[in-house]
Structures are given as C-alpha cells and as structure tokens.
Amino acid sequence: MAQLGFYFDMTSCAGCKTCQIACNDRNDLKVGTLFRQVKTFEIGSFPTPGAYHFSSTCNHCENPKCVAGCPTGAMHKLEDGTVGHNKERCIGCRYCTWNCPYSVPQYIEEIGKVGKCDFCKDLIDQGENPVCVDACVMRAIKWGDLDELKAKYGSVSTSDLPILPLSSITNPSTLIKAKTIAKQKDFQSKEV
Amino acid sequence: MGETALLIFSLCLQAAIGTMLFITLGKQLYKDKLFKRAALTTAILSIAGVLASLAHLGQPLLAFNSLFNLGSSWLSKEVLFSGTFMGIAVLYALVIYLKPTNQTLATGLRWAGSVVGVCAVFSMAKVYTTSIVPVWQGANTYVDFFATTIAVGALIFIAASIKELQNVDKKIYGFIVLATVVIQAAVAVPYAINLGLHGQAAQASAEILSGLTAIIGLKWLLVLGGAGILVWPATQKAETKEAAPITGMIYIAVVSLVIGEMLGRFVFYAAIVASTVGLT
Description:
The structure holds two protein chains of two kinds. By secondary structure, chain A is of the alpha+beta class. Helix content of chain A is 20%, strand content 23%. Chain A is built from six helices and ten strands; from the N terminus they run βαββαββαββααβαββ. In chain A, the strands form four sheets. In chain A, strands 8-1-9 form a three-stranded mixed sheet. Chain A has a three-stranded antiparallel sheet with strand order 3-2-10, with no helix packed on it. A two-stranded antiparallel ribbon of chain A has the order 4-5. The longest helix of chain A is centred in the N-terminal third of the chain and has 10 residues, at 18-27. The termini of chain A are far apart. By secondary structure, chain B is mainly alpha-helical. The model of chain B has no long low-confidence stretch (mean pLDDT 88). Helices cover 75% and strands 0% of the residues of chain B. The A-B interface holds A 34-37, 39, 54, 56-57, 65, 67-74, 89-95, 97-104, 106-107, 109, 111-113, 163-165, 169, 189 and B 56-60, 62-63, 65-69, 72-76, 79, 127, 130-133, 272, 274-280.
C-alpha cells in the first residue's frame, strides 16, 4: 500500500503560522479548533538561549492508534496511506482524542463529532497541493510518497524529537529536518 | 470536569455487575432466596449506566455505529458487553418478579450476566489501559475497576437483601469487601507515588494528583472506613430488636464506600494528560 507523508523543514520555518491559518480557512474552523498548529519552543538560557518552531498536523501514521481504537470505523486508512475520517459514521465518543499520541483529532462541540486533517484529499486528487504546503512562504512543508520523501530527505530528517512521543508507537508519516537545538531536552513551550 | 457521564457510566455498570456476581454467589449459598431487590437494583443501575454513556456521545442517536469495529476496538467490545449485560440484567429482574418459578431461565440469565459482566469490566479497563494516557496504563486500572465491581457490588447486594440475609452470617461479605479495598489501596498508592517517573505526560498527571491529595485522602478514608464498618462485630449480629441500628450501619457502609469510589473515579478522570505536544 502506498503511504503519503509530510516533510517539514524546521530550519526554514519562521513561525509565521500561515500554514495554520490556511488550514483553518480551508476547513472553515472556528476559534479554538485547529487541524494544523505551529508551536514555538524555547530551549537553554542566557547566554545560550534558543528557539524553534514546529508545525504539526495529522501524521497519517502507518499504525494509527486512532483507527485501531475507533469503535465505529469512522477513522480509517485509505489506499494512499492517509488516515481518513468518515463524518457520517462518527458518534463523537472522543476515544480517538485519547488514542492519538499527537493529540490530533479535535472534538468539535457544534457538530458533536471530531475532525482532523484529511491531507486536503480533494485537492491532491485533482493534482494540487494541500493548502498548508502552498501557503508556506518559506516552502518549509512538502508532501509526497513517504518512500520518495525518505529517499530525498531521509539522511537529514527524523521522526523523533524530545517534544514528540516515540515514533515507534504509531510510525508517523512525517519527516522533520530538525534544528540542532530541537534535539535538546530542556525545552519549554511558548505562546507567541 | 468533562467526563461526568463516563464517571456515572463506569460506576453504575461496575456496581450493577458486582451486584449480579453476588446474586449468583448468594444463590449458590442460599438456593431458597430470590434476592428480588438486588435484581431490581442491578437492572436500574445498568440502565442508568448505559443512559449516561449515551449522554457522553456527541451523537447519541448514532450509538449503534459503535459496534462496527469489534475486531480491533476495545471500546466497541465494551459497548457490546455493557449493552448485553444491561439486557440480561433487565430480563433477569423481569423473570424474578414475574416468573420466579422459572428457575432454569433465571439461573441461565444469572450466570450469563455474570460472565458477560466480567467481560464488560475487563473491556472497560482495556479501553483505558490501551489509550495513550500514561496515568491509565498499567495494572492499576484493572485492579481499580475489578475492586470497585466487587466491593460496591457486595455492599449493594447486602444492603438490597437485608431482609433475606437476616439470619445469615454476613462476615464473609465484610471480609471480601475489606480485602478487596485493601488490595485496591495497596496497588494504587505506590502507583501514584511512582507516576512521576514515566515521562512528561505522566509527570503532568502526577502534578494534578498531588493537587488532589485531600480528595484522594478522603476517598481512602471513606472506602476503607466503609469496608471497616461492615466487618465491625456489631454489624454481624443476628437480627434482633437492634435490627434498625445494624441496618443503618450497613447503609452507612454503602454510602461511605460508594462516595469514596466516586471520588476515586473523579480523580481517575481529572488526571487525564494525554500528551504534552499536539493540537490541544
């Protein structure tokens, strides 16, 4: 089975959150619900402080715990390896929010169901890019077949960072070109 | 506290299942007794629990969709076993009240309810232990759920069957309850103390728990106190003129233990920290 994935170049990310806003706009999300989010982390202290930004969304994992745990089958793997969410089937039990190590599925109170990144499936089916990819002014987000992404960026990227859960739990389909300081463990999340 | 419905669901179902287990045990020991009120309590508690679980859903009318992934989802299995248990408990109460002479049917339902109930409690524990919330992972959740089932079930059974158990030595039930809650405490306390050693999310949960120390202390006081009252010699006396005070003590034990277990379950849900990174 094919497996699509994202590549995120943290060394280029300026933390502008355009990807987050584009995603919100496309999915018509209300305040408080995010399918993609940019978080900023600080590390170290004077005289050697540092900061980095991390743009995250659904990792469309190879072994998604949300799919295994979903009692309705609403969360499911598609042929392209992405994790789809069938809104008609979802009963709003929120069990996926307890199963995703990356806290990706978002419970949307108004509709009584969860929602999450669908890899802009309708756009990629028409040969276009996901909106976050096109919106990024720094061209820090790329997407494609995970094997091809690994062949191209595998030597400079990782799926494991101190801020993230172990990739062995779900095998995320996201490659991250991390800043060196992002490998330090003394990080603190910062509101920007 | 966003998980009130789940608190009610899990406690009611476990109490109902525990009561059914003790009805089955009671019938093995005293074949001539019907334990009508206990059967009715089991049915009411299981209905209340299932209704509470529906209230938790964003789309309660689509609840049957939750049976679509029985293969890999423990939540699916939990729904199946809990729903089946409720059906059996209601049927059992109907048989006991309307056709008490049909012993074959009653026995079949009682045993089926007990087996399905144990499967439901196991599935409930699995739902939590297989999630990515560190505070729920490990043996503590199994021990907590089964201990609540046995302790609350035994007490509700005794309280609902006071008249039928009038001339019966209830010491054995008292010791079962006390032993169960002592095991529950012996597993839970070291687990909570060592929680901080298991990663960031677990540390965050440990911090929440340390902020709830007073509630946790009160929980153990009520749970152990409730169990203690039951093994108190006065509570064991054969019913005479002092029947009223003894009955009162049993009710106090039930209320104390149930409130204690409710506080414990409140803490269980309050300590949720799934991940320190993500969209929430």
